[in-house]
Amino acid sequence: MKIAVQVNNHPVELESRADETLLTAMRRAGFRSVRLTCGIGVCGVCTVLIDGQPISSCLVLAPAAAGAGITTTEGLHDGDPIATAFQELSAFQCGYCTPGFILTTRALLLENPDPADDEIRHALAGNLCRCGSYLKIHQAVRRAAESMRR
Amino acid sequence: MTLDPRITGRFEYGQDQQVEGMLHARILRSPHAHAKVLSINTSEVPQQVVTLTRDDVADLEPLYGPMVKDQPIVARERVLHVGDAVAAVAAGTPREAEEAIALVEVEYEEMPGVFDPVDATGDAAPLLHDGIEIPAELRPDGRNICHRFRLQSGLGQQGFELADVVVEDTFAVAAAAHVAMEPHATLAYWEEGRLHVITGTQTPFNVRRDLAALFRLSEEMIRIVVAPMGGSFGAKTFMRLEPITAALARKARRPVRAVLTRGEEFLTVNRHPARFHIRLGATRDGTFVAKSVDAWWDTGAYADCGPSVCTKGGYAAIGPYRIPNVTVDSRCVYTNLPPAGAFRGYAATQGVWASERVTDLMAGRLEIDPLELRLRNLLRDGDRFATGEVMRDVRFAACLRAAAEAVDWSEGRKNKGLAVMLKGMQTPSRTGVALEIDAGGHILLRSATTDMGQRPDIAQRNLAAEALGLSPDLIAVGPNDTDLVPFDTRTTSSRSTFMMSNAIREAANDLRRKIAERFEVAPEDLVLSDEGAGVAGSPDLSRPLADLAGLRGDGTFVTPGGLDPDTGQGIASSHWHQAAASAEVRVDPETGVTSITRLHTAVYAGNVVDRPGAELQNEGSTIFGIGTALFEGIVFEGGQVTNGNLSDYEIPSILDVPDFTYDLLEGGEHSHGLGEMAVPVVPAAIGNAVAAAGHPVRNLPMSAEAVLGSSTSQGLRRPSSPQGGWEGD
């Protein structure tokens, strides 16, 4: 079946079976920033934003996303304050989990432009980074918040 | 600023590789830990799906392995662990492959299994391998033992007669999962008899060599293209998916890609569970006089690099101490668990845990400050290690003092712990690299260093830029393809920065010579800058680098060494990884839950070539150590992994990471790898802190149950759990 969605503000028709996940359909459509790691919604690697909210695309059936506005990091533009902060602070190593962190950060900062350190930690608790870049990720989120408030 | 493709998510990993007409693989795995494979029936699989069973590989070498050839592509007469590959399929879509694999019927006859490395050496244990050839340099002395590393220095065991005090205890470290966020992924295809493999691997030249042997081809008939990895941590070393994918592609006459599921990751390769019995003897003034290390490393059903693990873990458990009389007996043992292999911290994690807990036991017995006891016995420049090699560029004390200071050790030791370690770097070892001027006036760096997220391109560009006196922007790293890059042993053992820094310097000197020849001047009269090459004092002779396109400098760096397996004497490492850690903890007396209140690592970094990269590596290592210390452990039940998913097997999240600090100790003549330094010392420092809080833990991980079970009031108990004490100390 074809599922009409908006991805990064562009209309996209996802090709999917009714029993496939949004993650599978997004990858098939070429959005490779959406990646499978745990498959059970605990690692946050496959995070996309649906209408601004971070969700694990491995837990959502593709048809359930029909009509939704989906955000992935492929839509990032140069100068994006969150992406810039992650890059300037070297807040990644292998980069596999990075899109999920950036999207979770975007959702956090849109809701809470001036998060306390503990609020940052709790917001990011559902995203795992095995390389262990958490210290620099935390700093990047802080810097992104500052630059977005300016 | 242009965004990095790793940030936008456009970066392509192994799992993203594809070629026209590619099929998707799935593997049928044994549900039994040990069984005869009576029959395999693929007749229900749809015609268009390619199947692979033992009959399809009968013309190939039967077995492969980096140190012992003991692993088949797919099972032959028996399966040896849960998850052992029995058959595989390749189909047009992943889904079709998944449906097809369910249609393969296998008839098994279950056999008794063995799941503990000590039990496996007993006469009653089933024999895992029969009739395999063990290379002459290994010592398969004992039932199910594929290698036994022994070391003796001084008087050996008799040295204990010189001791006033002897402490001893038994320790265990559980299996752990690498949990690279990207699973293993391999794509293989054949073209005119030549095998092309695009794969996420740390060991392209090992894979090329071993595939050549397996498929009975010359190495030139194999091409390995290394895909960047979404993490590896040792998991993507040696052959993993490459043999089965190549065999499928051979039969299908089509390209085939295989990507593991998360559950399969736990059945493919893990960290060695290990058991130790350690004795340490000292005189009353706190001088170490004798030590013995008995170790059992559970390498699972296949040896993989286990013989090297038992060697490196064997001497790591001696510790960075001056001890005149040492014996080590370190056994690499087959069991019916999934294979164990390289894992960040490579055997030092287990060895340092046991060794540094014993150091604290001695401090307690002698009532000497654990810092003082260590400083009194640490190896110094010019001392001989137990292997006989003379220690140079020694920084153990500096690391340890820095760690102690960071937790205000001198102001009180309550709930605090320290640890210090040495870890060897793979030797003998060889690295080649080339620097080539391209038509665009860039320097193309040809290197086999693989990218698993440790920023090797930045480090290598910085090294080449420094060696040539050019800006890093002018250096480009070429494709990682065994057809195009000089030989390099592998990207493991935190060796690449050290080895490459030396090889790149050689290549830069060679390139300067070549350019100087072109100008017909001596190399010292050559002036090289971002603007081009020229001759000192003759500005009119200057030419842009693009005019020199095609000139190439080659550099090779080789380290000798190796240890005698019977005496442990020789060269263990060309330079030493040196690190220390300190921790302060709070243990909840009701629940046994350990909280880290302070944590510091101090690692000898030498010359830092990529500062953010160095910081990231040490931060990541520290966090790896926290997981190993407090909660990471694979739980096996009758050979089955019972927690093979990321809900039941937890890795550290940002909430598990306390505020921690670290020192990168700089200086010396070399650049050092930093990828693994903190991993071994962090659990040991935390363990010594937990012990100082009244819970003398012996096993990793220090789960709440284990900590409660170890409390001093209950007295000392030996670990009874066969899997290394996960369920209780």
Question: Can you walk through the features of this model?
Answer:
The complex is a heterodimer of chains A (150) and B (729). Chain A is α+β, with helices and mostly antiparallel strands. Chain A has five helices and five strands. In chain A, strand 3 (47-50) and strand 4 (53-56) form a beta hairpin. Chain A is globular. The termini of chain A are far apart. The relative contact order of chain A is 0.16. The model of chain A has no long low-confidence stretch (mean pLDDT 98). Chain B is 23% helix and 27% strand. Chain B has 14 helices and 33 strands. Classes of the chains: A alpha+beta (150), B alpha+beta (729). Chains A and B meet through helix 2, helix 3 and helix 5 of A and helix 1 and helix 12 of B.
The mean pLDDT of chain B is 96
Tally of separate helices of chain B:
14
Structural class per helix/strand content of chain A? alpha+beta
β-strand percent of chain A reads 15-25%
What percent of residues of chain B adopt helix (DSSP H or I)? 10-25%
What best-fitting shape of chain B do the alpha-carbon axes yield? globular
**Largest pleated sheet of chain B:** 7 strands, mixed
Uncertain ranges of chain B: 713-729
State the order of secondary-structure elements of chain A, H for helix, E for strand.
EEHEEEHHHH
Please summarize the sheet with the most strands of chain A: 5 strands, mixed
Q: Strand arrangement, largest sheet of chain A?
A: 2-1-5-3-4
Radius of gyration of chain A: 15 Å
**What does the radius of gyration of chain B come to?**
26 Å
Please name the defining characteristics of this protein.
heterodimer; A: 150 residues; 5-stranded mixed β-sheet; 5 helices; 5 strands; B: 729 residues; alpha+beta; 6-stranded mixed β-sheet; 14 helices; 23% helix
